[in-house]
Structures are given as structure tokens and as C-alpha cells.
Batch of 3 targets.
Target 1
Amino acid sequence: MENHREYLRKPEWLKIRLDTNQDYRGIKTLMREERLHTVCEEAKCPNIHECWATRRTATFMILGDICTRGCRFCAVKTGRPTELDLREPERVADSVKKMKLRHVVVTAVARDDLNDGGAGVFAETVRAIRRKVPYCTIEVLPSDMKGDDESILTLMDAKPDIFDHNIETVRRLTKSVRAIATYDRSLAVLRRVKELSPNTPTKSSIMVGLGETKEEILQAMDDLLENHVDIMVIGQYLQPTRKHLDVVRYYQPAEFEELKKIAMEKGFRHCEAGPLARSSYHADEQVDPESRLRHDRLIEEEDHEDQRI
């Protein structure tokens, strides 16, 4: 007998109005021309139209589009990755320059087949963007790189403006939600980054709606704060396909507001919480104020140079 699973219907307030304007189409065309991947598309992010069409921001996904892990919440393809494209950092930097992005997020599939987990390509991508678009602030969102200290050192040597690594869910659900990654190893990576670069903001996200309790969410907040994480993002889990984990429940907007209030009272520098909040959502607003001022001055200088030309 077939097992008929019941699926929760998405609430009306979670339905998204698409805006595929000229900016959106231009970015999509550029991504195809440069043979680049974005997590916006691969992970079926619900904010892609707002980010591409309105904010003109994008999250580049380097190291290919095939992940070595098979997390049960994620829509990115799983399998054996192809060889590395060593020209990818320059192509990403060229695209950031063409789009005139002020803030860029660089993420990647997990590459457990590589000794450094892809840290070297991450670092080269950060440096390439710095050379070609000095006014752009850069956020990195890597895997845990198996907690390897040399890999973390390699990536942080490139000096990103924000380091982001997601714990994804509460401790109890980690084993059923994530593949290979562990709750404690993710916390250890975030702690190590802060030890290496105390002034670099660190950030982590969780999805709700997978069956966690409020007490477990609050414990996750405390765990992140104990490991010196500055920024927390809380968003609703949305099932990418019927092969993925089911949504246990949809949180109401008022519940996200309450969680954000609690997070700020606990001591986070910033908390983004909402049904569609994701790691890179409004990421440009989370940059350290001093870094933003420095990069704003560079933007003004480039605008004056363009006017002279």
C-alpha cells in the first residue's frame, strides 16, 4: 500500500510576487555568459527576484554546482564534483565589477574531495574581487571544511569583511537535517574564525519549521553567543521538492518578530528574522560600519572618476 504523506499548504502571506525586470534579466544573462553559478538559483532561494531585481545583489556559488554532501533540506545537486576551474575567481570578480555590486556573498558547494575543502579557491576569489572592485565588501559562506585549521587559516588570510557559516538547525535535529556536518564542529569553526580575526563579524543561520521547540531555538542562540557570533539569521524552512524534508509547521510573522527581539536582547549585534530570511538576505546591511564608510568613500571616488571620463 502506498504511503500518502500529508503536506502543509503554504500560507497566503508566504506567496511571492515575481518581479523579473531588466536588472533581473541582465544579471541572469551575465551569469550564463560567464558560466557562473548562484546559490540564489541552485537552492531555489525565495528572495531571488527581490535581490536581483531591486537590490542588485547576488550570492555567487563557486567550486562547481555538485556538492559532495546530501543534506536533506537542500536543493543543490549531490554527486562527484568535476575538476576545479582555476579561472573562476577572475570570472567572479569581473562579473561583480560589471554589476557594480556594493556587497557580494561568496558561497560554495561542500568539496570534501579536496584537501583544503576549497579554501584556496575561496581565498583567491576574495582577493580577485578586492583587486578589481575595491569598493565592494565581501562576505564568505563556506562549508565547515571538516574543521581543518589550515583551511580556515587559508581562507581568513584573504580578509573577508564577514565570515558566515550556518548551523542550519538546533542540536537535536542536526543529524537528521545535515550530512557529515555536526553542530559542535560548526560552532568550533565560528569560534576559531573569531580567534584568528576578532574584528571580523561572524554570522550563522537556522531554519525553523523542522520540528524544533522554542526552547531549542533559544539554546541555539546561547550556543552561538558563547562562540562569539555577532549576527544571527532565522528563516522559515521551505521544502524544495517532495523528496526533501517535510515542513512540520509554518511560523507566523509575529513569532519571527518575537525571536528577533529575544536575539537582540540576548546580545547579538544584528538579527534578521522572518519567513523569507536567508543567510544572504539584506547582507549588505550587516557589514561593520567602519568597513561600510571606507567602501562608500571608494564608491564616491570611482563615481567622480567616471564623470571625468
Note: The mean pLDDT is 83.
Target 2
Amino acid sequence: MTSSRDVARAHLGMMLWALLVGLSFPAVGLMSEGLPPLLLTALRFAIAALALSPLLLRSTDRWPGGAGLALYAVMGLCLAGFFGTMFWAAHRATALSMATLFVSVPLLAFGLGLVFRVERLAWRLPGVLLLGAIGALGLAWAESGGRLDGMRFGLGEAAFFLGCVASALYPVLSKWGLARGWLSPSAGLRTFWSLLVGGGLIGLLGLVGETPGHLTGMTLGDVTLLVYLGLFSSGLTFWLQQRATAVLTPAAVTAYGYLVPFVSMLVLFVREPRHIGWQWLPGSLLVIAAIVLLLRRDAAQREGGATGDRPAVAPAAIGKHGTRRP
């Protein structure tokens, strides 16, 4: 049974996740222009997987079974689908439209979680997610300077929305695979295999659609930033997400994505204080309120012995993954 301490650590870990992801955007902005983004992402994943590879030597269940390997392949497709469509749509969709579509990920995760029976049908969690989505939209509106003329829905936006569906499906599949004993109970191993398979697929996309020779333009500073992003913005954040997925529902995990634009806003204020204005306040308050309500919801469930964050299909006791014990 999941303890209160595990749930609290999962929430704290996802707050750290939001901080690391929010800080990664300024770091990416420091890299030289003209570098192939998909291949850079594949290299980030490779660096993160390499850092986690010693776990293979210390774990008895280091190799996934047939069902687990197939599931990791699908999860890798989800990662490749999200990053692939994001970079493809970046030149065909407006930033405001993409930011608006991205706030749908937690609600999509909730709906997909119902389909896979790792979420329970209830009104409170969707209400919290909707509140956070409205807040994140408010931050996107403030970042655009209060203008809505960048809103549209074309081919680029449609492709990115499919990427958002893939992003929402990733934690759902992780939770579903854990419930069936197909994935390792170790968050580190799940992170390793996800990054390895996902990075490989993203690398293939990059080889097809980008020019690998452009990587020779990397400077020493670019390489240093790439190692940092690989270890922290990829490796650590994926591990935090996988650890939280074991004890929280997919919708609760993805809800912390609402904090990312809030962190980015704070970084903007530090770097360019002139951007501070009242227009940031409504969205910020709604995002903070959503996270507080999410924490209170879990606390109330633990005190009352509720099972709202337990999957509808209870996880089996897991031996070597791919096997289940009653």
C-alpha cells in the first residue's frame, strides 16, 4: 500500500520537476543557433540513459520481458511523437496556439486514464485540472502581451495536438504497465529504458529530417549545456516523473506541467523586471490554487482512507517483470 510519505515525496518531486523543466528553457536558449533540435534531443536522452546505465549492473530485473519491451517501444513512440511534432509544428504554428494546446495534456491524461482504468471517474480532479488549465492559459495570454491574434488552428496545430495526446499517453502507459507487472518497479530502470528507446526513435527522426553534419558546429559551451540538459532536464526529470507515476495518477502527475510557465515567468522577471505587470497575476493565482487543491485532495484522501489515487486495476506484486504474483 502506498504510504503518506511516498505520496508527499511524489508531490515534492514533481515540484522539483516543474522547476527543472522551467529552468531548462533559458538554458536551451543559450545554445548556438542552427543546431538540429531532434538530434540534440536524442543526444540528451543518450547522455541521461548512459548516466543511469549502472542500474543495469545492480538490478536483477534489468531486462524487461517481451510484454515490457513492447510497452517500452510504444512509450518510446509517444516520446518521439511529442518531440517530433513539437519541432515540426514550431515553424508552422504560433507559440500562443501551441501553448494553448499544451494545457490540454493533464485533461487528456485523465480521459486516457479512464480508458486504461488507471483513473477513477470523479468530478473533483477534472475540476482542479480545468482550473489549472485556465490559469496556464492566462499565463500564455500574458506572455503574448495580452493579444489573441496569434490564436488559430491549422495543420501545424493539428499535428502538435496529436503530439500532446502522445505526451498524455506516456504516463498512462507507465501506470498501466506497472499495474500488470510488465515494467520494473524501479523508477530508475523504467527511466533508463524509456530514454533509451525514445531517444533511439527520436534520433531516427532526426537522421531522416535533419542534417547531422550541423552538429559539428557545436562549441564547448554547447557541449557543456547539452550534458547539463541530459543529466538534469532529461534524466532527473524523467526519473522524478516515473517515481511519481508509481503512487499518483497520470492526471495528477501531468498537472504539474501547469507550474512550468509559472517558473518561466519568474525567470523572466529576474532577467527582465520591466515585464512585471498585473496581467500575470490572474493566471499565476489560478495555477497556484490548482496545485494547492491537488495537494489538499490527496491529503484528504489519505486521512479518509479513500482510494482516489489508486488505480482501478490494482498493481500485482511484482517479481521479475513480465510475471505476476497474486
Note: The beta strands are 317-318, 324-325.
Target 3
Amino acid sequence: MTTKKILSIIGLALLGIVLLIAVFTSWYTVDESEQAVIITFGVANETVTESGLHFKLPWPIQKAEVLSKETYSLQFGYNQNDQGEITSYDAETKMITGDENIVLADLIVQWKITDPKKYLFNSESPREILHDATSASIRSIIGSSLIDDALTSGKAEIESETRDLLASLIDKYDIGISILAVKLQDVELPNEEVRAAFTNVTDARETMNTKINEAKKYENQKRNEALGEKAAINSRAEGQKVARVEQARGDVAVFDKLYAEYRTNPEVTQQRLIIETLETVLPNAKLYIMNDEGGTMKYLPLESMQSVVPPAAETEEGGGN
């Protein structure tokens, strides 16, 4: 075999290899959860977000960097593998609070790629930058917080402040990602003895709050009962007031009627009033009222009072019969 033929075979083989490379590197696919950046001779030209099959110039002229559009999670202070095993990094999570106490704080940062070009070309390692910015942010916020807030009721505020600070840092770095959420996983004291002491303090505080709430409940109950009793007394007093006013008006009306009758016939009215008064004072008495002619008028008889009647009155009564 001559040298010319050998060179021809080598040339055909190289051409075949180039053609195969051109065929297999001139297309790429993008899923619905992905996005791609087309790079031409090392320069990012366009971002492709539509899913499906796409074509480009073959390698090494163009290449496609496919990135996910889904949300990523950064585990700060620990690592959990696919089997669920957790590895803690205490040296990374140990930090000092504003009142000079040591705590261990680990968290999760949720983030996503919003600008693929900046993510690929504005930094060599955007994930490492995010990790360092997360460490700086949580240490800054914990360093200005009290230990009670970090361990109990202030966690939500710490999460919010950490997210805001981390988002501002990432915007300054301009690495093409955005922060969605920051979630504290665990904040605890560095050793068991201190944790036990703080747990006792926390339990005492919760017991105090429970007692305070029970006292307020009792106070509200007694106040409501007192207000109800007050309302009932006021209601009864108002009813008695109305009854007495009406009774007084009735008495005035009766007096006015009697006074009108008295002005019409004073003597008869006077005798009537005397009789009614005696009837009221002596309800069981047997009364005899004498007139000038010697006649009698029996009024409200009472057998027990016959012994006090004068004999002359009995004789005249018998003579009358």
C-alpha cells in the first residue's frame, strides 16, 4: 500500500470523525424545568428557555450549557445524604449572640438561578459565594440578637432579617441568583449542661406565662360577673324607681279626687275619711256610730268589742227595736 493511499484513508477517517462530531454536537434538548445558554467561542450569546429539541453550530464553535430553573437548597451547618444520614459541622455553625452567649445555628437557604449568563460568567464558583454570604449574614444577625430571641420566640424575625441581608449581598455580587427563603433548622446551646439549664429557664417562663393567662382569665370572669350583677342591680333599681313613681302618681290622683269631693261636700267626706281610717287602724273592731236622733248605724261588727259599748247605747238600741 502506497503512502498516498494511506494518507487518503487517514483523511477520510478524520473527516468521518469530524462529521460524526458535527452531527452529535449540533443539537440539544431542554426540558420544561431547564434553561440553556448558547456559548459561541466562549461568549454567551442567548438564553433558551423554551423546552424541546434545539439546533446549534457544532462543537467547538458553539456549545449549550443547560441549567435548572427549579429551586435549589443550600444546607448550612450540616449535610444530609440520600440515605437520610445527617452530618453536622459545629465549627461552621458556632457563633456568638449579642449578649455574649455561644449558640449553634444551622439553616436552609432556598435559591434559584435567575440569570444564567451571570451565573456562568460573573463568578468562578457562585455556590461557594452563596455559602460564604450565608455565613456572614446569619453571623451578623445572630451577633445582634439576644440568646432568648435566638432560642425561643425570635426565630421568625431572625430568619426574615437574615434573608433580607443575604439577598442584598447577593444582589451586590451580581452572580445571577436570587434568594427565595431562609429557614432556621435548629438553634441550640453548645453543651448538654447549658442546654438543660436553659430548658429549665424556658419551662419556668412558660409556667409563668400560663399562670398569668390563668389569672387574667379569672380576672375577666370575676369582672364579667360583677358587671352582670351591677347591671341586674341597676335594672331592679330602675324598676323600683318606676314603680314608686307610678305609685306616687296614683296616690296623687286619689288625693286630688278626694280633695275635689271634699270641696264639694266637706262634712260627708270628713266622716268617710274617719270611718276608713278607723277601719284601717282597727280592722277587727265592732263600731257603733250614734246620730243626734238617738238612732245607730252598725259598722264593722266585732263581738269582742261589745263589752266596751256604753249601757245607754244598748238600751236605746233595744228600744229602737
Note: The longest strand covers residues 102-113.
